[in-house]
Amino acid sequence: YIAIVFISFACKLKYILHPMVELQDKKYFEGFYFVLFGLKNFYFSHPNVYVFLSTIFTILVGFYLNYIMIREKIFSQKNYFVALSFVMLTGTFYSSSIVSVYFIGAIFLMIAFGMILKIEHSTKPRQMAFYTGALISLSSVFYFPYILFFAPFLLFICKDTLCSNVSFNTTFPPFVKLL
Questions:
Q1: How confident is the model at residue 8 (pLDDT cuts 50, 70, 90)?
Q2: With 88 labelled, which of 9, 58, 72, 81 sits at a CA distance of 20 to 30 A?
Q3: Quick one: pLDDT at residue 179?
Q4: DSSP H or E run through 162
């Protein structure tokens, strides 16, 4: 844990100390139907604190992704490689170092991804599928192109209902490892 936190702050130290107050993309805080004025005002009034809190939030999301991978046994060993790679990838660009509508929508997609993997072991798969679809729809409210993830979601649900003897653990991990 300590190494991931250290690496995360090392990757984002430049952005924490010298944040870009003038953003290249003015739509970081504009969702599909709304504008997050509170986040926008907080960013422009205290950019250092905002980037610092965004870094902590990114670390927590990385640990959540790592938890999903360990829970579903996607990798053969328990390690923090997923969290480490997520933290390092988000630390490379300033646009992924701050919490924006894109990042919030992606968090809802990650939670939906975890729910898709949990559907196989659930006692109420229809309810889980409904909640997963609701999360994908909620992510598209924050950033509309995320609606494109709805088609693969439908394929996973159809695969689960048509081929119930095939497990996610045997078909899905090669694609995750490829990414």
A1: confident
A2: 72
A3: 41
A4: helix 150-162
Of 90-94, 123-127, 171-175, minimum mean pLDDT range:
171-175
Give the tokens for residue 147: 């609606």
Six token digits for residue 100: 């924006």
Q: How far apart are CA 76 and CA 168, in angstroms?
A: 15
Rounded CA gap, 102 and 123, in Å? 32
Q: Tokens standing for 5?
A: 């936190």
Spatial distance between the Cα atoms of 124 and 128, rounded to a whole number of angstroms: 6
Q: Which of 45-54, 114-123, 145-154 has the highest mean pLDDT?
A: 45-54
Give the pTM: 0.75
143 exposure class (CB count in 10 Å sphere: 0-12, 13-18, 19+): buried
10 Å CB burial of residue 151 (0-12, 13-18, 19+) is: exposed
Rounded CA-CA distance 9/117 in Å is 30
Query: Rounded distance, CA 113 to CA 68, Å?
Result: 9
Place of tokens 């659930």: 122
Q: Which residue has the tokens 């970081």?
A: 28
| Token pair in block for residue 81 | 């490689």
